[in-house]
Amino acid sequence: xxxxxxxxxxxxxxxxxxxxxxxxxxxxxxxxxxxxxxxxxxxxxxxxxxxxxxxxxxxxxxxxxxxxxxxxxxxxxxxxxxxxxxxxxxxxxxxxxxxxxxxxxxxxxxxxxxxxxxxxxxxxxxxxxxxxxxxxxxxxxxxxxxxxxxxxxxxxxxxxxxxxxxxxxxxxxxxxxxxxxxxxxxxxxxxxxxxxxxxxxxxxxxxxxxxxxxxxxxxxxxxxxxxxxxxxxxxxxxxxxxxxxxxxxxxxxxxxxxxxxxxxxxxxxxxxxxxxxxxxxxxxxxxxxxxxxxxxxxxxxxxxxxxxxxxxxxxxxxxxxxxxxxxxxxxxxxxxxxxxxxxxxxxxxxxxxxxxxxxxxxxxxxxxxxxxxxxxxxxxxxxxxxxxxxxxxxxxxxxxxxxxxxxxxx
Length: 410
Description:
five-stranded mixed β-sheet, single chain, alpha+beta, five-stranded antiparallel β-sheet, 15 helices
C-alpha cells in the first residue's frame, strides 16, 4: 500500500508542476473560442474537408498523406476526377474518383443512428458506378461501431480509425508540409491541441510515462492502478443507475425490466470493454396506456452520454413506430414540451424516439470528466439523480395532461 501511495504522490507532484506552468501560458485557441471542441459536424468534419480540398498548393499533399495515414492504399488518386464532399447524402465526409468511393462517418460524442453505416453504404452502392466502396468509422479512440449503426453491413467492410492515432499523425504530417506557411501551420498546431485534449493527452503524460517505466515495480503498480481505475468507472456508473432508479421510484415510477434494454451490472462492465463496446441500455418505464396495445414509454439511455426521452411500447415491448404518421402530432407535442422546459432537443428523425434530451448537468461516462468524478461523493450523486428525476417526472406529468395524449387514450 505504501508503494501505491508513493507513486500517487509522485504523479500528483508532476501534475501540479504542469498546472502551475499552464497558468502562465497564453490560453488562446481559435477552435475552442469559435466552436464547441466536440462538434464533429461544424468543426471537425468541416475542418478536415477544408484541408483535403480547399487549400491551394497544399490540399493535394494533404490528401495524399491522409490516404496513406488511414491505409487506403488501393484508392487511385486522379486530380482530374477526384471529388471531396461534406454531408453528401448525409455522409460526414465523402471522397471519390470515377471508380472508387470512401465513406467516412465521424463520431465524437454523438450517438450512432439506426443502421447508419449500412444505409450509407447502400446509398452509394445504388449509384452503380463505384467498383470499390471503403467505409471508415472515425472516433476518438478507434472503437468499433455499434451493432445498431452497423446493421447488416459486414464487419470486414468497415475500418475503424481514430483522432488519437490516425488524425493526430496526419495533422503532424500536415504541419511539416506547411512549414513555409506560418498561418496555416499555426492553425494546424492549434487543431492538434484540440485533438490532444479530446483524446485525453496531457502535456505531463510523457513525464509520468518515464517515471512509470523507471522500474518493474513502478510498472506493476501502474498496472494495478489502471485496472483499479477501470473498475472504479464501472462502480460509479452502476451507482448512478441505482440512484436514479431509486429517485424515480420515490415518485411512484417503477421500471419495466426488458432484457434487451434494461441496465445490468454485466452491461455496465461491458461498456468499458472496447471489444464488446456495450451501449444503449438504461431504465425504461411505461407511463401512459394508449389504444391498440400501444403505450408511451419513458427511457433513460446511455450511448456515450446519458439522455432521456419518450418512445412507444406495443404489448409491453419497445417498438420502432415513432416515425408512423399517425403519431406525428404526438411527436411534435413531445418536442414542444421538452423545449418549453428549456431542454435542448437534438434534431432527429429516429423511429425509436418521439424526442430526446440531455439531463442537466450533461453526463458522459466515456469522457469521465470532473462532473462524473464527483459521483464518488454519494451525497452529490444523490443530488444530481434527484434533479434528473424531477426533470423527467415534470415532463411526464405535463405529457399526461396534454390534449394530444387525451385524444389517444384508451
